[in-house]
Amino acid sequence: MGNLSRSPVLDGVFPDGPDTVLLHPAVTARRWRRRQIVAAVRPGTVLKGLSGATVVGFALVVGNGFAGKFIFTAVVLIVVLAGWRATCVAREGRGPHGDTPGTRLRRGEGWRSRDFADLGADTARQVRELLAGVDELHRTPARVWIDPALPGEAHRVVWQALCCLDRSRDARALAEELATDPYAGEDLVAAARQAVTTIDHGLGEVARHLHGCLLLTRAWEAKLRRTDLTHRTGNVLAALPGHDHLRRLTQAAEVLPQNVFAHVTAARDLTQAGEFPWERPSTEWPRLTLVPPHRATAPRGAGGPAGEGLS
């Protein structure tokens, strides 16, 4: 599973597939990191280390020459590579095989979203929203602007709400049993249903208030984003050339054709090359006559529509 340093909501791969987990508030990042390292050190790795130590001891006792040094170096290299591999596995949060979680949950250490799938589609959806809300509240860029203890308090409240939801399983089962039992009175059925309704209402209130926190942090995120965009836009636009600079460039470009014209006409006069076309009257300017293709004159000797020659 993932890293606890940013959020207590982690994604993991379990025997029944991928799922999201809300860890117990008492599980600290340091404790979870230690669990990951321990999970990465598998029995096979320990056996390899013991075997390597045995071979090293044997090489030191028996071989004092090149063979002993070679075996010692090879075993040390194997041990170092095994330790490096275990460290990488712990950082990734997965076991050596991609289909197994790197750290297995102990009982009471976390709630999975699938733990409440049997309580109905609406309840399961609400649980997923609660887990996603806690995760977002821990990862939001607005966290540095709010009370540092607020994400942890939201984590604790959601955890306790899920504990209450889990404790309502017996009441839900009893309500279903009483609803179908002809000997159960209406008062018992109503009491059981009221208890379940109270739990669901409380869970809904927790979800509503958590959603209110998310709306506020999202609004502040939008403000922060707007401020950042405004600052960046101001810096970019300030680096652009101003109107006065562009006007000077335009004026400098305006005299270029005048300069060329003066030199070209002076060279024409010096070489007596004659007038330029634009210096002649407009009636003497060369014209381009376009003849439509369908009115083009037929070649001499070509036949008519029936292929006959001209007489």
* Sheet with the most strands, sense and barrel status: 3 strands, antiparallel
Label the structural class.
mainly alpha
Weakly predicted, low-confidence segments? 92-102, 304-311
First-residue to last-residue Cα separation:
99 Å
Strand order of the largest sheet: 1-2-3
Protein name: Conserved putative membrane protein
Keywords: Membrane, Transmembrane, Transmembrane helix
Transmembrane segments: 40-60, 66-84
Task: Please explain how this structure is put together.
This protein has 311 residues and is mainly alpha-helical. Among the domains are: 9-92; 117-236. It is 61% helix and 5% strand. The protein is built from 8 helices and 3 strands, in the order ββαααβααααα. It has helices at residues 29-40, 43-62, 66-92, 121-139, 150-167, 169-180, 186-238, 243-271; strands at residues 9-14, 17-23, 110-112. A 3-stranded antiparallel β-sheet has the order 1-2-3. α2 (43-62) packs antiparallel against α3 (66-92). The protein is elongated.
List keywords for this structure.
single chain, 311 residues, mainly alpha, three-stranded antiparallel sheet, 3 strands, disordered C terminus, Conserved putative membrane protein, transmembrane, transmembrane helix, membrane
What would you say about this model in short?
It is built from 8 helices and 3 strands, in the order E-E-H-H-H-E-H-H-H-H-H.
What's the topology here?
Blueprint: E1 9-14, E2 17-23, H1 29-40, H2 43-62, H3 66-92, E3 110-112, H4 121-139, H5 150-167, H6 169-180, H7 186-238, H8 243-271
Antiparallel strand pairs: 1-2, 2-3
Helix pairs in contact: 1-3, 2-3, 4-5, 4-7, 5-7, 6-7
Protein name: Conserved putative membrane protein
Keywords: Membrane, Transmembrane, Transmembrane helix
Transmembrane segments: 40-60, 66-84
